[in-house]
Design a protein that fits this description.
- With about 150 residues, the protein is an alpha/beta fold.
- It has a single domain, classed as Rossmann fold (3-Layer(aba) Sandwich), CATH 3.40.50.9100.
- The chain has a 5-stranded parallel β-sheet, sandwiched between helices.
- Strand 3, helix 4 and strand 4 form a beta-alpha-beta unit.
- The protein is globular.
- The two termini are about 15 Å apart.
C-alpha cells in the first residue's frame, strides 16, 4: 500500500480559529480526517504530523520518510525560509507536493516565495482544505506512474 506523509507547519494547528476568509472553518483534525478517509478510498495510507518548530519537522521527515512513498507538506510560515526542511525533503528522494490553503500568490508579497516549490512535483494553493485531497489524489497517481 502506498504511504504518504502529510506534514503541517506553524499555526496550522489553529485552523478553525484563524481568519476563515483565508483558511476556512475546518479544524486541522477535520482536515486530517477527510484526507485519511479519501486515502482509504483510493488505497493510500496516510500519516499526519504538525509542529510549530522547524527542527521538529526536520526530525519527523528524517524519522518517518524511510517507510513512505511521498510527502504532502504545508510549511506555513516556514515555506519562505525553511531551508533545513527543504534539505530534509531532498534527502528523502521522495516526491513532494506543496499545499497552501489560501492563495499565497494573491496575498502579501512575502508569502509568494517558496523554498520548496522549485523542487516539488507540484504546488496547490488557494483551493482551501480540498487542496490536500487533490494533492493526495495527484501524488498517489504520480507514485503509481513512477
Amino acid at each position: 500500500m502506498t504511504k504518504i506523509l502529510v506534514i503541517n507547519g506553524p499555526n496550522l494547528n489553529n485552523l478553525g480559529k484563524r481568519d476563515s476568509g483565508h483558511y476556512g472553518s475546518k479544524t486541522l483534525e477535520q482536515v486530517n480526517a477527510a484526507i485519511e478517509e479519501r486515502g482509504r478510498e483510493i488505497g493510500v495510507e496516510t500519516s499526519f504530523f504538525q509542529s510549530n518548530h522547524e527542527g521538529a519537522i526536520v526530525d519527523h521527515i528524517q524519522a518517518a520518510s524511510s517507510g513512505a512513498d511521498g510527502v504532502i507538506i504545508n510549511g506555513g510560515a516556514l515555506t519562505q525560509v525553511g531551508y533545513s526542511i527543504l534539505d530534509a525533503l531532498l534527502d528523502t528522494g521522495l516526491p513532494v507536493v506543496e499545499v497552501h490553503i489560501s492563495n499565497i500568490h494573491a496575498r502579501e508579497e512575502f508569502r509568494r516565495h517558496s523554498v520548496i516549490a522549485p523542487y516539488a512535483v507540484g504546488q496547490i494553493a488557494g483551493l482551501g482544505w480540498r487542496g490536500y485531497i487533490y494533492a493526495l489524489e495527484f501524488l498517489a497517481e504520480h507514485i503509481k506512474e513512477s
